[in-house]
Write the structure tokens for this entry.
Amino acid sequence: MTAATEQGLRFSRRFTDQPSGHVESSAQRRARGLGWFSIGLGLTQIGAPRALARMIGISDDEETTNTMFALGLREITSGIGILASPQSPGWVWSRVGGDLMDLALLGKAMSDDQNDRNRVAAATAAVAGVTVVDFLTGQQLSRQGGNGGSEHRTNGSGMVQQNRQLSSGVHVTHALTIKRPRNEVYGFWHNFENLPRFMAHLESVEVLDNNRSHWKAKAPAGTTVEWDAETIEDRPNEVIAWRSLPDASIPNSGTVRFKDAPGDRGTEIHVELRYQPPGGKLGSLIAKLFGEEPEQQVKGDLRRFKQVMETGEIVHSDSSIHSGMHPAQPPESLEDVELLGTPREHAVQR
């Protein structure tokens, strides 16, 4: 083993060794990854500032080079701080501040005609995604008290804190009519493992027992978040209500009520969802900037739920069915308009 290798291993152990009996949380592991990411990005900004500037669509003049050098030093400093103390939220919050600075600089670059706006926009989207991950990690580390493990709480105090988070988060309500009997609609939703079939953000839901389930959802920058939930109310064919357990990555709760639709038209469902998006208010703002309004997401999910219940499958748009140019195919009836939501979509025959 060379002296350089031995020195590298000692440097690595300095940041990766933990006291005996220490159990690293998922937030700490994510923080450690962010630390290495900071160092890698900082070295690139210092070592190849002009190439990086061209890659993100910014003119590679002397001012840009100096700015890249300063940003690189900031990234390396943050990265070393995080790796030295991955359980402490302070250095992760410093990354959030740096991310906001980067977004401001990219916003300024977007207004300069000399820059490649498409590339700048792509870089802005990437930084926005990382910002949400940084913010989420900082929140989790702060909740853990910076002590490297989950902060001990009773269920009561944990629920109180979660309810406060939900009261300041996103609140969405929506109702629609499904042309299926109430017991069928209730039965399908009652099995939470069916939810990813129509909820686009969900990757999986695993039912653990009669009251608990484990959820896995998509998060910004290609990451995922997971949490456990409990069913708090379940009246057959009438109502299902659930909420995440304390310290969930995304505090959330939901209620679905099932009623017979007037005129023997099937089942009315009334859905109420509350959740605190990743990154809190900042995450919600970034989502809106990129066209991901929570209300539209929920409406889209419920429209797909209606399609699954009534046709057995998700309806595809013309562009996803046909290749190349093709004549428009309007719906055959007003019923299709209600089912599909837009005249450009049509149901695939079963």
Summary: The chain is about 50% helix and 15% strand. The chain has three domains: 24-143, 163-311, 317-350. The two ends are 65 Å apart (CA to CA).
